[in-house]
Specification:
four-stranded antiparallel beta sheet; rod-shaped; 2 helices; about 80 residues
Length: about 80
């Protein structure tokens, strides 16, 4: 009887209810201040606030994911247009 109870507990722990309904984690969006910097500085090809790095691509801006405990600072241009 104890063996059956132990197997039932292990099974319940291995396969939690609703696990199939879990949504994948979404990538956090960069802050509006970082995106606004890119809009207001079209000559800048790459910029950062110390947490997020954004770069211009062909008709799109790509930004990295911020670290979990990152404290942003003033946004600066790292690579001006040539």
């Amino acid at each position: 009887m104890r063996l059956v109870a132990a197997v039932a507990i292990l099974f319940a722990l291995a396969f939690p209810a609703g696990a199939e309904d879990a949504k994948p984690e979404e990538k956090p969006a960069p802050s509006e201040a970082v995106l606004a910097f890119g809009v207001s500085h079209p000559e800048c090809q790459e910029w950062t606030d110390g947490c997020v790095i954004c770069a211009r691509g062909v008709d799109v801006v790509n930004c990295s994911t911020p670290g979990i405990a990152c404290q942003p600072v003033e946004t600066v241009c790292k690579r001006p247009a040539k």
